[in-house]
Amino acid sequence: MRPLTSNRPAGFTLVELMVAIAIMGTLLAVGIPNMTSWVLSNKARGASEFYAEGLATARREAITRNAASRFVLSPNANGQLDWQVDVCFPVPGTPCSADSGSWSTVATAADNDPNAATPYKSMFRAANALPNADALVPTLQPQGSTGVYFTALGWVDTTDAQRLTRLTLTPAAHLRDGIATVALAIPLGGVVAKCNPDVAAPDSRACP
């Protein structure tokens, strides 16, 4: 008995190919916007950690090195804020402040750094990976502040009248369903507190 054979040629017909392309187009139309939104949301959620890391680093370097330190913010092209941590070793008659002292840079160590073998050079972190400011808006309090100084004990240096007390990250309207507004409050003790400025006490998420 001869086996049954099909006269249909191998491969896809034009109709089957068009159906497959239509299905793929539908999946891409639905999936790409969702994937884009998911990536953007994850980046926005990580922004508070990015800045909290810089503040914690500045405080830690001050305590570890028995020096003054500062956390300095600077705007970049995408509307976000890069950060840098500098240190300064005070000498009699020349305190470390916004107006005086020898501060480290990313290229050079501060004068009088006692760690001659491995002197500290400033740490810089770019905010290029964060969403643009039209998706996540950074707000500094007080307005016009550029950073905060820490003493060798890790306390905030109150001689800087324009010191940063709060950094708020507000998502754009189309992201607010999945992302809450987050603020980093910087009390005099120097330990950063993450909070939600949209809620009030006694809610534990409220800002101090």
Automatic annotation (TrEMBL):
<keyword id="KW-0488">Methylation</keyword>
<comment type="similarity">
    <text>Belongs to the GSP H family.</text>
</comment>
<keyword id="KW-0812">Transmembrane</keyword>
<dbReference type="InterPro" id="IPR012902">
    <property type="entry name" value="N_methyl_site"/>
</dbReference>
<feature type="transmembrane region" description="Helical">
    <location>
        <begin position="12"/>
        <end position="32"/>
    </location>
</feature>
<dbReference type="Pfam" id="PF07963">
    <property type="entry name" value="N_methyl"/>
</dbReference>
<keyword id="KW-1133">Transmembrane helix</keyword>
<dbReference type="Pfam" id="PF12019">
    <property type="entry name" value="GspH"/>
</dbReference>
<dbReference type="InterPro" id="IPR022346">
    <property type="entry name" value="T2SS_GspH"/>
</dbReference>
<keyword id="KW-0997">Cell inner membrane</keyword>
<keyword id="KW-1003">Cell membrane</keyword>
<keyword id="KW-0472">Membrane</keyword>
<protein>
    <recommendedName>
        <fullName>Type II secretion system protein H</fullName>
    </recommendedName>
</protein>
<feature type="domain" description="General secretion pathway GspH">
    <location>
        <begin position="53"/>
        <end position="170"/>
    </location>
</feature>
<dbReference type="InterPro" id="IPR045584">
    <property type="entry name" value="Pilin-like"/>
</dbReference>
